[in-house]
């Protein structure tokens, strides 16, 4: 589903990853992280897709909200599990959304 975001400006955290073999608890923790992120101040929405390459884009009101999420204790635990168990490699990019547009029937 496409996230319903406010009018720009806002920020996007783009997390791109390649997984290791097996689930190893990933699906459950991933779901928990989306639920937890959605409760954080400044969270605007999330979109994700996974095949061989996974892409999760979360949208935030400001950089302060992103930093608080990055330092959330449960999120820090998930980040460590990601490095030790779930990802072959990943990259996180943070960008400011200056403009958006779309189409809906």
TrEMBL record:
One of its GO terms (molecular function) is monooxygenase activity. The keyword Kinase does not apply. InterPro entries: ABM_dom, Dimeric_a/b-barrel, Jasmonate_Hydroxylase-like. Residues 9-78 form the ABM domain. Keywords: Monooxygenase, Oxidoreductase. Pfam families: ABM. The keyword Phosphoprotein does not apply. This is Antibiotic biosynthesis monooxygenase. It comes from Salibacter halophilus.
